[in-house]
Write a structure and sequence with these properties.
The structure is a homodimer of 137-residue chains.
Chain A: H1 30-37, H2 43-56, H3 59-70, E1 74-75, H4 76-83, H5 87-99, E2 103-108, E3 111-116, H6 119-136
Antiparallel strand pairs in A: 1-3, 2-3
Chain A binds a DNA duplex (30 and 30 nucleotides) through residues 1-4, 16-17, 21, 25-27, 58, 60, 75-77, 85-95, 107, 109-112.
Chain lengths: 137, 137
DNA sequence: CAGATACATGAACATTCATTCATATGACAT
DNA sequence: ATGTCATATGAATGAATGTTCATGTATCTG
């Protein structure tokens, strides 16, 4: 995922591996495939969706989001302390999460407090946990 | 995310960047941080959860899952044709998705048909899309 | 203003990981 | 058995990206 396009500049080149490739397979149910092609997820939605999941797929970002889901809001230094991560690291992750509108920043004096900018994140984490806990058994 | 541990061998070393790090911050709300520490997401759940999201965070895997969500089941070659990906590529992705119990394989003659092994995946995709479509506006 | 604190950011580095090629396995037909 | 088709897998490689260091910016204090 071209996740480092968080400077809000959408990538102009197709994401890695999304270039058209030859399909070397012969026994294809052509009709079915054609039918599925219509009703496809539109490319930009697919791209954004992938970015969201990629953001959640990084352990430290996930921990940040999970922490913010429990605490209503936390400043950067509290996140550093809680997660035992370098301030620089946390700031970089927060920048990405901000760009994806997953978190929101609010300045208060010298501190910047972050909170979830989205009700869906909590839901995604919970739904994911359900799967994990079922699959583990 | 240590996603290439899909040989079902859980990594014995901590994932990248999860090693304990010094926290160089001074002005921490210690009480609050301590309170948040309890009730934390347990490490193994966090790891698995990250793996799930990382799996969904890769464009081609996401496209595979989205295709399987619409079609009830598809063989590898149909997936290749639909997504215009190399067979080898698709097989590798499917292997990962299998290991995470996101898809299920069923052999039928020479073909192997894949389907979603999990009701949550559909939900995760839908929830993610909701966010994307809101945030885009 | 000078110094300190909290956070942001750029560049560099190290690692992960997606994709490909080559090849192996498994199933069916002849 | 031999050949072909469908899929799986190992190794290699190139690109993406997480983390760190060094430094910059903003806010408060004295």
């Amino acid at each position: 995922m071209n996740i480092h396009s968080y400077d809000m500049v959408r990538p102009t080149v197709p994401a890695r591996g999304l270039t058209a490739e030859a399909c070397e397979v012969t026994a294809v149910d052509t009709a079915r495939v054609a039918a599925l092609r219509t009703g496809n997820l539109c490319p930009t939605d697919a791209l954004r969706l992938g970015e969201i999941f990629a953001a959640l797929g990084e352990p430290n970002r996930l921990r940040i989001l999970e922490a913010l889901a429990r605490a209503r809001s936390l400043c950067v230094c509290d996140l550093c302390a809680l997660l035992e991560l370098r301030q620089s690291n946390v700031s970089h992750q927060l920048r990405l999460l901000r760009a994806l509108r997953l978190v929101r920043a609010e300045r208060s004096g010298r501190n910047v407090f972050y909170s979830l900018d989205d009700s869906h994140v909590r839901g995604l984490i919970e739904l994911g946990l359900e799967h994990v806990r079922e699959a583990t058994g």
